[in-house]
Write a structure and sequence with these properties.
The chain is an all-alpha fold. It has two domains: 164 residues, Four Helix Bundle (Hemerythrin (Met), subunit A); 273 residues, Cytochrome C Oxidase, Chain A. It is built from 14 helices and no strands. The protein is globular, with a radius of gyration of 22 Å. The relative contact order is 0.09. The structure holds protoporphyrin IX containing FE (HEM). Protoporphyrin IX containing FE binds next to helix 6, helix 10, helix 11 and helix 12.
């Protein structure tokens, strides 16, 4: 095995990076395009679901458009369509770069992505027709949707793992740990979630074992892998502490996997199951804070760079949201808090802080970084980047804080047993309007981002080759508005 290390010449490293990028280019861009199509579909369905909560008569004549169908289609298209497709692409790109070798078995990754998306499409059509497995996050039918999706995921995992196997480096950076583990854990939990044949309350336990770990051992791990790569890369300095990064990885692997039953606090499960899960949830403070301290200390002294790099801004806000959503999660795992927030829109706010201002922000950040490098051209418009950024930032802020406040008001009214149920609805109703307003801002941001990506694909390549190792110094966009600097490089 030819091995590369820090003593290898910059030219040599650059050449290897260019080869790695080139090998996965079509696949990564393909997953971005597919992901964006699902993003637009899922967003529009989310809007409809949100409007229905304050306009209950909207689109009720068609069974396919009722809340009970639109809501799971929204969730499944965004989790398995938008997020997972983009995660497939960035995982292979990151893996090839990190182990300094061209991506392997790319046709396998393509085949897997095709099968995955056909399965998802079939499942989504089934949901519109009312054909569902009836478990949250596992609504897609296990026969004609989940089975092909598992086969597809296995093909993609084979390519990621084969690339790792062909590595040209001895040392495995922490991002490699996160990525490699994600492609073991996700197929495993997806199979268990879909095919474990429990009944009744045991089925609910399996359901939340799956759904919680889909968040923690798939979406979170790929996102953390991406942050650990991009943060030091853009800042041009190493990560603060190698040991903290290992503590974060192993702490997450150990404690997160035991968290699932905190979704069923108050449910008819043995109390040891719930208690174990609450303890493990509180223990999550260890990996979460070790990641937060590590990222913060890496940033210290370089916060001004946030003004100039869309990638860095999205990545840092995403990383901060990881800390925020996790600490919020720890808090709501405590029985006294859960008694108020459970069954309210607080949980929906928490969910969007997790899958939007953490996960989706990271995906936006990575796409802003990767796409121009693969295409060897600039993002065409600084103004469109700014519009996208501010729309989604304001949108998600309104969304999360509106529902957090509204959810607590709803929960307090629900728990006041002397009051009629309708008071809990009245308490949250204004915040459902705020949520719809926020959803419109997010929708506008997504259309702008998708349009900008289309413009990027259509634009001409740069005359000179852009260095894949090019980092912060030549600036592209000042996100605070006004000044735009473009010095012919991608940040
Ligand atoms: C230490 C970390 C975390 C803890 C302890 C935690 C805790 C919780 C708890 C207790 C619930 C259930 C609330 C209820 O139904 O009453 C919940 C729901 C949820 N969490 Fe977290 N959370 C954490 C991190 C995250 C992260 C990182 C994400 C996203 C990547 C996330 C996404 C969600 C989602 C989507 C739901 C809603 C599930 C549903 O009901 O459909 N959480 N979390």
């Amino acid at each position: 095995m030819t091995t590369l290390d820090t003593s290898s010449s910059p030219m040599e490293l650059r050449k290897v990076a260019a080869q790695a990028d080139e090998s996965v280019k079509q696949f990564v861009l393909g997953t971005f395009i597919i992901g964006l199509i699902w993003l637009i579909i899922g967003t529009l369905l989310g809007d409809i679901a949100s409007f229905k909560l304050h306009w209950p008569n909207l689109l009720t004549s068609s069974p396919a458009m009722t809340f009970g169908r639109v809501r799971p289609v929204h969730l499944n298209t965004l989790i398995y369509g938008w997020a997972s497709n983009v995660m497939f692409g960035i995982s292979l790109w990151l893996m090839a770069r990190l182990v300094r070798t061209p991506g392997r078995w790319i046709p396998s990754a393509w085949t897997g992505t095709l099968i995955w998306n056909l399965g998802l499409l079939a499942g989504v059509m089934g949901l519109f027709f009312g054909d569902t497995d009836g478990m949250e996050w596992l609504e897609l039918r296990r026969t004609y949707a989940d089975l092909p999706m598992i086969v597809g995921a296995a093909f993609i995992a084979a390519s990621v793992w084969r690339t790792l196997g062909a590595r040209q480096v001895h040392h495995l950076y922490v991002s490699v740990w996160y990525l490699a583990a994600s492609f073991l854990w996700f197929p495993f939990i997806f199979i268990v979630g879909n095919y474990a044949s429990q009944r009744g309350v045991e089925n609910a336990a399996v359901n939340w074992f799956y759904a919680h770990n889909a968040l923690g051992l798939w979406m979170t791990t790929v996102s953390l892998g991406a942050i650990y790569y991009l943060l030091p890369k853009i800042l041009g300095r190493p990560i603060y502490s190698y040991w903290l990064s290992l503590l974060g990885f192993w702490g997450l692997a150990f404690f997160y996997s035991l968290n699932g039953m905190h979704h069923l606090i108050g449910g008819p499960l043995p109390s040891w199951m719930i208690t174990t899960s609450i303890v493990a949830s509180v223990m999550m403070v260890i990996p979460v804070l070790s990641v937060a301290v590590n990222h913060h200390m890496t940033m210290v002294g370089r916060f001004s760079a946030l003004r100039y790099s869309p990638t860095l801004t999205f990545i840092v806000l995403g990383a901060m949201s990881y800390t925020g959503v996790s600490l919020q999660g720890v808090m709501q795992s405590v029985v006294e808090v859960n008694r108020v927030t459970h069954f309210t829109h607080w949980t929906v706010g928490h969910a969007h802080m997790g899958v939007y201002s953490f996960l989706t922000f990271i995906l936006f950040g990575v796409m802003y970084y990767v796409s121009p490098r693969l295409l060897n051209r600039e993002w065409p418009s600084a103004a469109l980047i700014r519009w996208h950024f501010w729309l989604v930032l304001v949108g998600v802020f309104l969304y999360v804080f509106g529902l957090a406040y509204g959810g607590v008001m709803q929960g307090l009214a629900l728990n006041a047993t002397e009051k009629p149920f309708s008071e809990s609805v009245a308490a949250v109703l204004p915040w459902l309007w705020v949520r719809s307003l926020a959803a419109l801002l997010l929708t506008a941001g997504h259309f702008i981002f998708a349009y900008h990506f289309y413009l990027l694909l259509k634009s001409s390549p740069a005359k000179e080759e852009l260095s894949p190792w090019h980092e912060i110094s030549p600036l592209v966009v000042d996100l605070s508005g006004g000044r735009i600097e473009s010095k012919g490089a991608t940040v």
